[in-house]
């Protein structure tokens, strides 16, 4: 029994349990006047996620890494399947219908791409070479493009983010990093020309929300009202007016942080931010401690993604970033997102367990 408890990192474990608990409270409150199927489905996915988080640490993560090429191929095939046979919701074709729920393959690509890149870098020299970077960019570009065409800019960005963390922490030449930023800056007019109209409108709404308060800027304005009206301790559980009176769109998905802020105020909002920070830093800490390169880059990729995606979602909610349509990890409604992040945490816990075992064996010798 003692060995079982030693297999977990309780800072990571309790952080995730807290976030999932907050999720169920927020989703129940946000959808109480609508269909009860939302909370029922999320409870089921929460149970499945907990099973993953508690059981995956006892699977050697190196087996997953060594089979990552097959996971990657399966992921790409699923994205291609979505393009031709996926279901369309609000103009976007992102889901595969599976009985009573829908699967979003692009969410799982966040996990798969990091694992596959860790596999590539496991045999690479550190600092990595330009050749290694080229391989990685090819691997990432395919799911990035297929996701972007759904269209789903938010998820496409979050597929790319953890790989940028890995490349940076793998000791890439600073000249390459600076050059990449300069290329992005100078190519921004070209990027702008190829954005879809709704994407351009979201950026304009972020810069100047008062220009179209009842159109493109409506989400941001209503979200900021909800967050601000919560004040210090909130209006109380089930007492939020922005969400209950349907002023706040996507109140259980992309804007669930606004729902929670309105009902529980700055206190809970600050705790959520601190828990995300603690969770990400703890995972990155283990990345710095683990000797195995694949395990190290898994921690760097997943820790970086959790931190960045949480930051973007919260910044979007309070008007500090454009609306890009990404979930708040572990909290937003959605089975694909919750299971994906649970797979990440379970794999990180596997990395930690194997690392602890190797240290004990070394000490014993």
From TrEMBL:
GO terms for biological process: cell division; cell wall organization; peptidoglycan biosynthetic process; regulation of cell shape. It holds the Pfam family FTSW_RODA_SPOVE. It is a multi-pass membrane protein. The chain crosses the membrane at residues 12-31, 43-59, 71-90, 111-130, 150-169, 176-195, 264-285, 297-324, 330-352. It comes from the Bacteria. The keyword Cell membrane applies. Pathway: Cell wall biogenesis; peptidoglycan biosynthesis. It is found in: Cell membrane; Membrane. Keywords: Cell membrane, Cell shape, Cell wall biogenesis/degradation, Glycosyltransferase, Membrane, Peptidoglycan synthesis, Transferase, Transmembrane, Transmembrane helix. GO terms for cellular component: cell division site; plasma membrane. One of its GO terms (molecular function) is peptidoglycan glycosyltransferase activity. Its main location: membrane. Its EC number is 2.4.99.28. Coiled coil: none annotated. It catalyses: [GlcNAc-(1->4)-Mur2Ac(oyl-L-Ala-gamma-D-Glu-L-Lys-D-Ala-D-Ala)](n)-di-trans,octa-cis-undecaprenyl diphosphate + beta-D-GlcNAc-(1->4)-Mur2Ac(oyl-L-Ala-gamma-D-Glu-L-Lys-D-Ala-D-Ala)-di-trans,octa-cis-undecaprenyl diphosphate = [GlcNAc-(1->4)-Mur2Ac(oyl-L-Ala-gamma-D-Glu-L-Lys-D-Ala-D-Ala)](n+1)-di-trans,octa-cis-undecaprenyl diphosphate + di-trans,octa-cis-undecaprenyl diphosphate + H(+). It is an enzyme of class 2 (transferase). The keyword Transferase applies. NCBIfam families: rodA_shape. Peptidoglycan polymerase that is essential for cell wall elongation. Belongs to the SEDS family. MrdB/RodA subfamily. This is Peptidoglycan glycosyltransferase RodA. The lineage of its organism: Bacteria, Pseudomonadati, Aquificota, Aquificia, Aquificales. The gene is rodA.
């Amino acid at each position: 029994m003692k060995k079982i408890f030693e297999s977990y990192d309780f800072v990571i474990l309790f952080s995730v349990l807290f976030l999932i608990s907050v999720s169920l409270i927020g989703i129940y409150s946000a959808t109480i006047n609508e269909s009860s199927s939302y909370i029922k489905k999320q409870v089921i996915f929460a149970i499945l996620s907990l099973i993953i988080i508690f059981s995956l640490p006892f699977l050697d993560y190196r087996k997953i890494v060594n089979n990552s090429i097959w996971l990657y191929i399966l992921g790409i095939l699923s994205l291609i399947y979505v393009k031709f046979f996926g279901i369309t919701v609000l103009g976007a074709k992102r889901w595969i219908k599976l009985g009573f729920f829908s699967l979003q393959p692009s969410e799982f690509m966040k996990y798969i791409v990091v694992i596959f890149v860790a596999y590539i870098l496991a045999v690479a020299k550190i600092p990595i070479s330009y050749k290694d970077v080229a391989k990685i960019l090819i691997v990432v570009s395919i799911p990035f493009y297929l996701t972007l065409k759904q269209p789903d800019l938010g998820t496409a960005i979050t597929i790319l983010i953890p790989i940028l963390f890995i490349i940076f922490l793998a000791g890439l030449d600073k000249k390459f990093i600076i050059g990449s930023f300069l290329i992005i800056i100078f190519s921004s007019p070209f990027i702008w020309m190829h954005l879809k109209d709704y994407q351009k409108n979201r950026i304009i709404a972020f810069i100047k929300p008062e220009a179209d308060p009842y159109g493109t800027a409506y989400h941001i304005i209503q979200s900021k009202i909800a967050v601000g009206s919560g004040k210090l301790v909130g209006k109380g559980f089930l007492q939020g007016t922005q969400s209950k009176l349907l002023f706040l769109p996507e109140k259980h998905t992309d804007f669930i942080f606004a729902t929670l802020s309105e009902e529980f105020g700055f206190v809970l909002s600050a705790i959520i931010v601190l828990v995300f920070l603690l969770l990400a830093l703890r995972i990155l800490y283990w990345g710095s401690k683990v000797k195995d390169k694949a395990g190290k880059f898994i921690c760097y990729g997943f820790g970086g993604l959790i931190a960045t995606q949480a930051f973007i979602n919260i910044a979007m909610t309070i008007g500090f970033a454009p609306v890009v349509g990404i979930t708040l990890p572990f909290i937003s409604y959605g089975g694909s997102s919750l299971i994906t992040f649970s797979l990440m945490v379970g794999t990180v816990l596997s990395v930690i367990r194997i690392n602890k075992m190797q240290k004990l064996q070394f000490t014993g010798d």
